[in-house]
Design goal:
Blueprint lengths: L2 H9 L2 H15 L3 E6 L4 H4 L4 E3 L1 H10 L4 E5 L2 H10 L5 E3 L15 H11 L5 H4 E6 L4 H9 L3 E3 L4 H11 L2 E5 L2 H10 L7 E4 L10 H6 L2 E4 L11 H10 L4 E4 L5 H5 L3 E2 L2 H10 L6 E4 L2 H10 L5 E3 L15 H12 L11 H16 L2
The structure holds 1,3-dihydroxyacetonephosphate and iron/sulfur cluster.
1,3-dihydroxyacetonephosphate (13P) binds next to α4.
């Protein structure tokens, strides 16, 4: 998309841009489907035909036959949608710079290097199931497809890990250390059966014995947004608002999740709030846009943001009404615009790992 076209959209009043999105979206009808992640800003989120967590949105992408999908989310989500849709369906990411800093913490070369190093201690292809969080590049999903592994999301990590341990004795989990650790602890895996793999260090900073003993090898990655929550924030909230329930996303640290009353994906957090009786009070540890939306939608249930600091995902925030309108204009003009297209060979292997996850339900 030309920067001149965007500049022209920024020169218009925001209300005009919103009106233009409304009428163009109506005009395009079933030529386009707009998917919106819960962390999207309100001005964009309101136009989502389907909103959800990564699991729900990937299931939706796998099921739709609409020719154009505009994914209001981040790059790995659009890649996933492209992998799960037919070749003649076009997936667009309104702002191609909307990445995910966690997904960038593991790349194909680093994971291949880790697998190679593991061969000096064990036979990884016989003993280790690679599991990648969906917040990862298509290349890593392909690695899992090629090596008997699977993808997971924050909504099904335990189910996928149970499957992974059914296949082989160990799991290599990347790129989010916290989701892997929190899920394993919830499944009763003791701490002494987990090690952390620090890319760049020989054997990831572990001894051969520790790797042989481990059932779970956790890549040392994290979400810079969720790491801002601290367990002390829960203690303060509980002191200030007796009876409050703390809800946390599993990308938060182990200490934050242990201090919470409920840990779950964005979709699960929403369901928890929706199903609670009026008068329930919550402090929520996940991205600010979602917490603010819940607060507005449930005035009868006081809701606080767990951290005193603002924790927003700056890359999710990149998708603004101007980029959404430009993407709709691309669809109207039959331009591929900011299409996200995973190379065929990578997509074929990545689809195997994604399908294993989807088949688990
Ligand atoms: P979910 O919406 O799947 O819980 O994931 C949160 C997230 O960080 C997406 O990047
Ligand atoms: Fe990535 Fe964290 Fe943003 Fe989710 S919230 S997209 S994990 S940086």
């Amino acid at each position: 998309m030309s920067s001149k076209r965007l500049e022209a959209l920024y020169a218009r009043a925001e209300s005009e841009v919103i009106d233009a999105i409304t009428s163009l979206r109506a005009e395009l009808g079933d030529r386009v489907l707009i998917l919106g992640h819960h962390y999207q800003r309100e001005e964009v989120f309101r136009f989502a035909d389907v909103s959800g967590d990564s699991l729900k949105l990937s299931q939706q992408a796998a099921a739709t036959h609409v020719p154009n999908i505009i994914f209001c989310g981040v790059h790995f989500m659009a890649e996933t949608a492209d992998i799960l849709t037919a070749d003649d369906q076009c997936v667009m990411l309104p702002d191609p710079a909307a990445g995910c800093s966690m997904a960038d913490m593991a790349d194909g070369a680093q994971v291949a290097e880790c697998w190679q190093q593991l061969t000096s201690v064990m036979d990884p292809d016989a003993q280790v199931t690679p599991v990648t969080y969906i917040n990862s590049t298509a290349e890593l999903k392909a690695f899992c497809g090629e090596h008997g592994g699977a993808v997971c999301t924050s909504g099904n990590a335990e189910r996928v890990m149970r499957w992974g341990w059914g296949e082989r004795e160990k799991i290599l989990f990347f790129p989010d250390r916290h989701l892997g650790e929190n899920s394993a602890l919830a499944m009763g895996i003791p701490e002494n059966e987990m090690v952390v793999w620090r890319p760049g260090e020989p054997l990831g900073g572990n001894s051969s014995e520790a790797l042989q003993r481990a059932r779970l090898i956790l890549w040392d990655g994290f979400c810079s947004v969720h790491q801002l929550f601290q367990p002390e924030h829960s203690a303060t909230m509980r002191q200030q608002h007796p009876g409050i329930a703390v809800l946390a996303h599993p990308e938060c640290s182990r200490e934050v999740c242990e201090a919470a009353d409920f840990v779950g994906s964005t979709e699960m957090i929403i369901r928890y709030v929706v199903e609670a009786p009026a008068g329930s009070q919550f402090a929520i540890a996940t991205e600010l846009n979602l917490v603010n939306r819940l607060r507005l939608q449930h005035p009868d249930k006081p809701i606080w943001f767990l951290s005193p600091m603002v924790c927003m995902c700056s890359t999710m925030f990149r998708t603004d009404p101007q980029h959404l309108l430009a993407a709709l204009q691309d669809v109207a003009a039959d331009r591929s615009g900011n299409r996200v297209q995973v190379p065929t060979a990578v997509a074929a292997l990545a689809r195997i790992a994604l399908q294993r996850m989807l088949d688990l339900g």
